[in-house]
Amino acid sequence: MRYVKLHENEKVPVFKNIAYALKLVWKADKKLFLSYMVSYLADNIFMRYIQGVLFLKVLLGVIDSGGDFNLFLRDLLLFFGVTVFIKVVTWWSSYIRQVSTKRVLKVLNNMVFEKAISLDVAEYEEPKFYDKYQRATLVMSAGYYDVLCSDFADVVSSVLSLIFLLGTVASIGPVYLLFLIPTLFVFVIELRKSKKVYKRDWEMAGNNRTKAYIQRTVFLKDFSKDMRTSNIFSVMMKRFDKAIKENVKILKSYGFKLFVYSMISTLFSEFIPLIGTYAYAAYQFVRKNTLSVSGFSVVISAFTSVRESITLITYCFDEMAQMALYFQNLHDFFDCETNIKDGEKTAGKFESLEFKNVTFRYPSAKKNVLENISFKITKGETIAIVGVNGAGKSTLVKLLLRFYDPTQGEILYNGVNIKEYTVDSLRNAFATVFQDYRNFAISIFENVICRECSDEDRERAKSALKKAGLWEKISSMPSGGETVLTREFDENGAGLSGGENQKLSTARLFAGEYEIAVLDEPSSALDPIAEYKMYESLIDATKDKTVIYISHRLSSAVLSDRIFVISDGRISESGTHKQLLGSDGEYSRMFKLQASGYVREEGENDA
Questions:
Q1: Measuring CA to CA, which residue among 273, 260, 329, 272 is closest to residue 306?
Q2: Best exposed site among 90, 93, 312, 465 by fewest CB in 10 Å?
Q3: Backbone conformation region of residue 386, classed left if phi is above 0, alpha if psi is from -120 to 50, else beta
Q4: Alpha-carbon distance 26 to 30, whole Å?
Q5: For the chain, what percent of residues have pLDDT higher than 70?
Q6: Could you tell me which CATH number the domain at 352-437+514-530+542-606 has?
Q7: What burial letters (b/e) apply to 101-126, b meaning 16+ CB within 10 Å?
Q8: pLDDT, average across residues 454-459
């Protein structure tokens, strides 16, 4: 059985995936696999053959032959010595496994994380990707790599003990081997059962992801206020209940089939072989008188061990086949290829940036987000790209950083298509403050520098926080810049307001080394005064630098050398602040509307 057929056009290679899984584990930490092999070889051969059959046969043979007590005692002491040795080996192997399991988990998780971070941002906008990711991580979260190593070692050791046992049974009476034939059908039955279990879990993956999302949001601080001041919680709970009900339906749809498979499996592995063996042994012992008491005991014990070995081999191989299905998910995940390919050139000092007839449509969208965008920026310029929300401004940043590639047209960095540069060197040329900024549950200094900090890094972070207008708040905390954000992992952690979090995100720009700064809505969470102060700091920090402001708030536009107005994915206007204000176009209307809002706000504050 080389393949398991899941769907009409999907076959999963069992042996290939088992080999792939074992290779992964071996590469992560070979001690895990070896510890299972040593432990199971010692335990299975000892328990099923040496203890269960061989030793029993030797002792009963001594009794039947009228041997003396000294001979019996010698065999007993030998057995005791072997038992102690096996127990020590088993205990030591178990200890090695406990450590190795953690190491393998760490290595495999790191591999998954590194693969996930290397994938295109576009993948994260597809629900299918998250289902694939969840099925792949199930290998780690459910410990399937550990199960597969255990099963493989169990199969190898059981096959060896089975060879010894079959020889013993055949020497007593070859007819007994006939009663083992039904156990061979268990393999086919359990294989079909494992396919059903996998398909059941596959169908439940989407619902499980929904449940995990809701469980996570209920406990996250970011959602706590909305959960308590709106009806969102009840909406989420309805979705949670729906996911559970859907899973219950799936479980029920497979429940009876799995029950039938289990009953048939038990019939062939337990009832038929057991009843047949006991009946024939009793017939030989009672009616034919061809089997002694000791022979009867040995044959029953040997047959029981044989049946257990065959059943275990069948069960383990069935479980390995099931694990192979899950490792196919992991294999598929690792085989995911990015559409964003590395170039060979290294992006050097910035001289110019040009969007040339750029059109873009998101993979799942029906219409273009950007349509024939063209503009050029040269070194030292400050540019503002403005427009209402949804106009396509932030998409420009995604294209610039090669989160996506244009559908048509090209983007040139220093006159060279950005596809020709390595992705890392291109992205490292930019210091970017994103609209949907994120800070992490690590120290404030580490959030700014984005790595573990040296003393020099801490001083740079401190200076950046001062420029961002946040150091006064940070310095008042007991641990200062070493304070961990949020209390999720540290009871002494601190929370920041939305504006403070945005300032912290902006501090990364002040601390970084870059060729061109891109600020996507850098002041969206700030009040007008804080916004003004931050722009003063930005002007100072980006002196002689090239800066691109992207915003629907026009305070940054006043500071810019040129302004591009984006409307419905196109550049509808361009020019200086003075030129656009006098043209009575879209920019002028937006600016006057926002200015009147600030005047009203100031009047209300004065009142």
A1: 273
A2: 90
A3: beta
A4: 4
A5: 84
A6: 3.40.50.300
A7: beebbebbeebbeebbeebbebbeee
A8: 90
